[in-house]
């Protein structure tokens, strides 16, 4: 087991001096985590001169509509794989879905 490294760091995110981990809404916590992820993508892009693939799981469920739109606008030019239980939020935000796959009863279907 590794005892050092970035996975051992404790980061504190505050909104107006308040620790959002303890007192923030789930939407605020999700926004902070996504902000960190987007910043990480920018750092990787600069370091390797290429854009990494972004993987997101059920990313819109805890965000209000303005934060949903901001996130979708931010990842527009990034190859992104998103898992979710429905695509309604993406359609409402006019996000271009290049490919959609449905999984039901262990079967994956495109479309």
Write a structural description.
With 111 residues, the protein is an alpha+beta fold. It has one domain. The chain is built from four helices and six strands, in the order ββααβαβαββ. A two-stranded antiparallel ribbon has the order 1-2. A two-stranded parallel sheet has the order 3-4. Strands 5-6 form a two-stranded antiparallel sheet.
Query: Regions with pLDDT < 50 over 5+ consecutive residues?
Result: none
How many helices? The count is 4
Q: Can you tell me the overall shape? A: globular
Measured between the Cα atoms of the first and last residue, the distance is 43 Å
DSSP summary, beta strand count: 6
Order of helices and strands: EEHHEHEHEE
Mean pLDDT: 86
Percent of residues in β-strands: 15-25%
- Radius of gyration, CA atoms, in whole angstroms: 16 Å
Q: How many discrete domains?
A: 1
**Multimeric organization:** single chain
Binned, the helix content reads: 25-40%
Strand order of the largest sheet: 1-2
How would a crystallographer describe the biggest sheet? 2 strands, antiparallel
Given helix and strand content, the structural type is: alpha+beta
